Every structure is written in C-alpha cells, then in structure tokens.
Amino acid sequence: MTDPAPQIPAPASPSEPRLSQAQVAVAAQGLGRLGQSVAQRIRTLQQDYSHDSSQAVQALARLRRGIGRQANEMPDLWGLLGIEQFYAAQPDGHRISEAEALRAERAAHVAVTLWALHQQSNRTKRMHVADGASLGTAVRRLMTGTDSDEPIRKRLLRAGTATTFDVLARRLRELVVLLRKADIPLDYGLLAEHLDRWQKPGGPSQVRQAWGRSFHAYRPSADAGRLESDVPEGPETVASTNETKDHT
Question: DSSP letter string over 132-200?
C-alpha cells in the first residue's frame, strides 16, 4: 500500500476532558464481553498497584515477563488476564468455540501484558483509562508539530500493516514504550477488542481503519483541566469509540 504521508497539525494540548458520569454510563455499552472483562481485570490491578499493594506489584512483574510470549506458554498468568471474567460473562447455553477462545486468550494476553509495561513504576497516573481512546488517538497525542512527529506516525503505520499477530504485538510494544514515556494513557479494554477483531477474516483492515480514523479525527480538548487518568477511579466504562482509519 502507498503511504500518502498527510500533513498533520500539531495538537495544542495533551489534556482530555474528564467524562461525566452520564457519559461514562453510556460508554460502558461500547465494549463487548472481552473488552469489558479485560478492562475490569486491569482496573482492579491498577487500583491495587496505585496503593502499592505487594500482590499487585508482583502481578505486574509477572505480566511483564509475559510480553513477547505466547499466551499458552504462561500458566503463571492464569487469573491475571480477565479470561475467567470473559467466560463467566457468556450467556447461558452459549458455548465458545475453540477458535473464539484462542482469539480471546491471545488478545487478552497481549493487551494486559502491554498495560503492565505501560503502568510500570507509575503509581500516580492510570495508564488504562476507560474513555474509549483508541490507539490512533493516543499516538496522535504524542505528536508536537515538530520534525519528530513523522517517525511516530510511521510507527503507527507499521503496527497497522503488520502481517502476523506476533509482529503486531511487537510493534504495539514499541508504541506503548513511547506512550509510557509521555504518560499518555490508553483504553486497554478497547485494545483487547481490536486485537480480537484483528484475528478474524477481514479484521486487520478493519482495525487499521479504526486506528487511522481516530488518529486523523483527534482534536485536542479546549479544556485544559486534569487528565482523566489523574482523577480517582470511577465506574469502569468506555466512551463511544471513534473507529479510526490509518492510511497506508
């Protein structure tokens, strides 16, 4: 695919408005069972980690050791990825197929281990926020309107054009490292949904479109208040997703 390298205006501010409780309640409906389960699991770990719980600190260390590994290689992570919640959330009588289970396990493994990397050593800000911020939105917030923006944009393009799930996970890790350095959060429930969709027929192009659209649609908030990630935990939700297109 050709890369048109569009001119990208610099965001004026990294701040995002805090969601109202009404917005939060509506947003919760935007995730499927997997995204909600992953977000719920991360929320619990994140809350405990912010309080310096030794159990949470150890859990994040175990999760980081799972980065780059296959989900079925890490029985040590059972109970930490939200898969139990995913199975429990299935309607009565619904039997998950082997293919569906494998997709969910792989997506949850990558999403939660990347969150653990993103949250590492940060007790004051939440790096998972349930505000519906797609990967494209988060990457756009990294950009400052300088020459350093183009390498960042190309990293998103590389993730969007990954040809295998393992390559995608590796390229997402590169982006998460940048987001961690800049204290820019991400909606990891939404990322889990995107990773699950990526593994379905036609999924890579749909996810690429979602990330790219939110990248190009992002506009900095006029509200210069605190980041939502700096305020106390609220109900676990996701704002309506700007499905995003990444031009490649």
Answer: ---HHHHHHHH--SSTTHHHHHHHHHHHHT-SSHHHHHHHHHHHHHHHHHHT--B-HHHHHHHHHHHTS
Distance CA 142, CA 11 (A): 9
Buried/exposed 28-63: b ≥16 CB within 10 Å, e otherwise: bebbebbbbbbbbbbbbbbebbbeeeeebeebbeeb
Helix (H) or strand (E) segment spanning residue 65: helix 54-65
Q: Which two tokens stand for residue 221?
A: 């908030």
Contact between 30 and 239 under an 8 Å Cβ cutoff? The reply is: yes
What angle separates helix 98-119 from helix 165-182, to the nearest 10 degrees?
A: 30
Mind listing the pLDDT tens digit for each residue in 167-220? 999 999 999 999 999 999 999 999 999 999 999 999 999 999 999 999 999 988
Nearest to 31 by CA among 155, 191, 207: 191
* Residue whose C-alpha is closest to residue 81's, from 63, 99, 98: 63
